[in-house]
């Protein structure tokens, strides 16, 4: 779910500690605020997501930009302040409405979040050392809240800078780290990305009957369109092309409605031409500016990357390569989310997408049949429930009136700072706030690696159910945070056990974390 959808029930009253200018007074309660207070006193909030001490240089650059942008904003407000305008036009001051934002708002604020789960302890985490005066530090609280926050922000790896527009509560960009490197003064801040329709067009080199023709992107009418981001100078990109070529050719022979379009990050026209000759699929003509724009639209943080889009240009999956290599026959076309996955080298990347319930077995054919007998019906039932909730969510989003006519055009009405000091929310957590994907293990060695090396459960008797969270692990990227394990026996009602566990809220599971 989006940041906006979860804000009122999950994030509004998240506790933050303001970093003071100078030595603070002992037990200064004014330094403890809520995220809602910060959101309502800023036009943009930059979430600086780090792990331990990662990103010290990035923090200094961010602080320098914030000071310059806020200083400029203060000068602009002074020149165009309501008081100045009233004096000029000899107007009287109007009374402020209760709960409205006053002129003390700033252009941007920074919230520092340590993604290392150890930072939730009193003595854990070193990110506060990176905090600059005037910043806000995410205080230790439920891991469930942090996990939801990281997913809602679209976090991938630390250190990251993610910009949120406070008026719409929408994520402007997840690529703030790269954009700050290119725009240290923040001239184009908040770095709104272009609209997909404005860049997902133009000339495409398409192979037709052995020859190359130039066509417009709009003429590609396949059900699924893949955007492959890469470059000839990148060895993994060259390897991806070799891996995907036979799969793509087989799918085309089988009549699968798929077309891949290469988006080049090559450094020259010559390198682009040489690389494209090795590809059986289409390619946008060489245009670094367009590729850069596409990476911003779809939040591509590195190459190689293959995303799959539907006909409306919406992302089906960011795991395009894994989806195609796992399914060369197109059995799961168009590769939307499935009720149940086998854990292997192609699906392990999904463990970061959502908290996961994994049924570990020895992986023999009999074990796989047992896993399917346990998980199949349960996963389908849960998936149907999930799709119904998703349909209602989409319908509600479409019917929701837009309170802000322009992105970043204003601030929401807010309670006072005293009213924002509440630590709880009366709103129930939406059902889809804590999605849970289901997986079972087979013969792939990655299963043993996860069980033994990452989860440290190699000595436990199998079969075993584990619930893990790939974003709540150390550093938010290097491991899985183990939440719950349950030993099951084939003669027990294993399916009922799985269903019961899947009904746990993520918050309950995080409470049980050692």
TrEMBL record:
Residues 390-434 are annotated as: Disordered. It comes from the Eukaryota. This is Thioredoxin-like fold domain-containing protein. Residues 224-315 form the Thioredoxin-like fold domain. Signal peptide: none annotated. Coiled coil: none annotated. Residues 390-403 have a biased composition (Basic and acidic residues). GO terms for cellular component: nucleus. One of its GO terms (biological process) is negative regulation of Wnt signaling pathway. Gene3D superfamilies: Glutaredoxin. The lineage of its organism: Eukaryota, Metazoa, Ecdysozoa, Nematoda, Chromadorea. It comes from Cylicocyclus nassatus. One of its GO terms (molecular function) is thioredoxin-disulfide reductase (NADPH) activity. PANTHER family: NUCLEOREDOXIN.
